[in-house]
Design goal:
By secondary structure, this protein is of the alpha+beta class. It has a single domain, classed as GMP Synthetase, Chain A, domain 3. It is about 40% helix and about 30% strand. The chain has two helices and five strands; from the N terminus they run αββαβββ. The N and C termini lie far apart (about 50 Å).
């Protein structure tokens, strides 16, 4: 009896996992493309994971502004703050829209599951922007896709 139950559970869980495997790469590419379109840099390409009982989690590491390098001309602090502020706003808007749209159209997300995007932020100019968050999280449930929770840490 227990063997039959386990086999049934595996059969039910397998299609969800197979569906996620097909959706994983397009989700990752979309997040990377959206971040790059703001002028921010993707430092470590996004990775998507399916978590049983939660849904899909996508994690990416970015820098809003790159360091000028050895031979680059450093920007003025006010200019750096303005650029980072605009890119931060753009990333938030684009990824919030992405979460709203994808949480309802991603087949591997169950009816009560969620989609979350976790952004790890590298502050390349801590002297100019000392209060930049190190992590930004956006998430929404499939049953209420228009309510995107936004948190900064």
């Amino acid at each position: 009896m227990l063997t039959k139950l386990l086999a049934l559970i595996l059969l039910v869980a397998t299609p969800q996992t197979d569906t996620f495997k097909k959706e994983m790469s397009p989700l990752q590419s979309s997040v990377d493309g959206l971040v790059n379109s703001t002028g921010s840099q993707v430092l470590q390409r996004s990775r998507a994971a399916y978590i049983e009982g939660y849904g899909v989690l996508i994690s990416v590491e970015i820098a809003f502004e790159g360091s000028p390098g050895i031979f680059g001309t450093p920007k003025k602090p006010a200019e750096v703050r303005a650029v980072v502020s605009q890119r931060r706003k753009d990333v938030q808007e684009k990824l919030t829209a992405f979460v709203k749209q994808r949480v309802s159209t991603t087949d591997s997300i169950g009816p009560s599951d969620s989609l979350a995007v976790v952004i790890h932020v590298l502050n390349t100019t801590p002297a100019d922007i000392p209060n930049l968050p190190v992590q930004i999280v956006m998430s929404a449930k499939k049953d209420s896709p228009q309510q995107v929770a936004f948190r900064e840490f």
